[in-house]
């Protein structure tokens, strides 16, 4: 497997990053099986693992920690902080108070004395970014963290964080972890170019479009929703399904499974360092590993651009970050009395 530089950190990582979200109660509750999957990925040349404290309430980190016994030095290990880890109102977010506590919990679960990459899982509009960067800088200076990054930050907040770090003499975000796939290409407009401008590495999540780009979910076909307890919204999104219907014959003509087409597309962009795969089973991992060396030619990439134009989303990403300015009605509507007065 050919390795790539993670931004300007000097750290080399594989173009596939093993995402650990599916290890634990959220996906595969069998620890031994999950560890076998991790070991298989490492044996195949993947040297980058991404997890988060919130995945299965810390269980994912515990599984990864057990899997890396005796192999820790060979792995670039990343985790994240932000989401609630308990009922306490201060056991969440991007405050110094929580970051300092959360990293200690993650290190304990992962059975390591440092993280190669520690990421802010989502923006926190209630916390000054200087507060967050100051805490993360102290973790770097103490040796508990090697590099810091963000996840799903809008372009404007990526730039703001870079400026704040420069003005205040703080450590800066070295990576960004945004969603990216054939059906969600909006980061090509600003996020990826900005990351390239600042020399940031990018590890993109959901390269399979939350499962849509496996080719198993098609128009007019019954979808097995037993595991999820209901049909996710994106599985019934006609705009995305229209894209899938056009991609299936393209993949067949190229002699590729849909998963290989989707993954090869994600890592073809010069602004993408690594694409996160999130297998729940060994079978899923083996399928993805089989396509690790696939390269798409210009003709196929041109056809994908026709089907899903660059810089556009075929439909919203159900789990992507939505800024409060969009999600909160009170922030995008003047009060009735004020509108009436004008």
Automatic annotation (TrEMBL):
The keyword Oxidoreductase appears for this protein: yes
Record-annotated NADP-dependent oxidoreductase domain positions: 17-308
Entries under InterPro entries matching the protein: AKR, AKR_Detox_Biosynth, NAD(P)_OxRdtase_dom_sf, NADP_OxRdtase_dom
A GO term from the CC aspect: cytosol
CDD domains for this protein: AKR_AKR12A1_B1_C1 (cd19087)
Domain of life: Bacteria
Keywords carried by this UniProt record: Oxidoreductase
Protein's name according to its UniProt entry: Aryl-alcohol dehydrogenase-like predicted oxidoreductase
Region of interest called Disordered, as start-end residue ranges on this chain: 308-342
GO molecular-function terms, A-Z: oxidoreductase activity
Gene3D superfamilies assigned to the protein according to its UniProt record, in alphabetical order: NADP-dependent oxidoreductase domain
């Amino acid at each position: 497997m050919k390795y790539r530089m993670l931004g300007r950190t000097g750290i080399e990582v594989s173009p596939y990053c093993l995402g650990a979200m599916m290890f634990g109660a959220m996906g595969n509750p069998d620890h031994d099986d999950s560890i076998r999957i991790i070991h298989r990925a490492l044996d195949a040349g993947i040297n980058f693992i991404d997890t988060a404290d919130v995945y299965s309430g810390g269980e994912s980190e515990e599984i990864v920690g057990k899997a890396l016994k005796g192999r820790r030095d060979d792995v670039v290990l990343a985790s994240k902080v932000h989401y609630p880890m308990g009922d306490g109102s201060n056991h969440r977010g991007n405050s110094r108070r929580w970051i300092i506590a959360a990293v200690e919990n993650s290190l304990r679960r992962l059975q390591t004395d440092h993280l190669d990459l520690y990421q802010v899982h989502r923006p926190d509009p209630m916390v000054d970014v200087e507060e967050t960067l100051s805490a993360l800088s102290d973790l770097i200076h103490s040796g508990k963290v090697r590099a810091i990054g963000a996840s799903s930050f809008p372009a404007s907040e990526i730039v703001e964080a870079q400026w704040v770090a420069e003005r205040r003499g703080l450590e800066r975000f070295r990576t960004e972890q945004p969603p990216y796939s054939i059906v969600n290409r909006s980061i090509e407009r600003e996020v990826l170019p900005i990351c390239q401008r600042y020399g940031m590495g990018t590890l993109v999540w959901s390269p399979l479009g939350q499962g849509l780009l496996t080719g198993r979910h098609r128009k007019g076909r019954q979808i097995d929703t037993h595991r999820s307890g209901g049909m996710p919204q994106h599985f019934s999104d006609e705009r995305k399904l229209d894209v899938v219907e056009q991609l299936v014959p393209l993949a067949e003509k190229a002699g590729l499974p849909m998963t290989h087409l989707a993954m090869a597309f994600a890592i073809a962009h010069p602004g993408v360092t690594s694409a996160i795969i999130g297998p729940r089973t060994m079978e899923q991992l083996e399928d993805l590993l089989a396509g690790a060396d696939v390269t798409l030619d210009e003709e196929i990439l041109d056809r994908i651009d026709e089907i899903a134009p660059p810089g556009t989303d075929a439909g919203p990403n159900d789990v992507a970050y939505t800024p409060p300015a969009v999600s909160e009605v009170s922030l995008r509507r003047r009060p009735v009395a004020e509108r009436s007065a004008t």
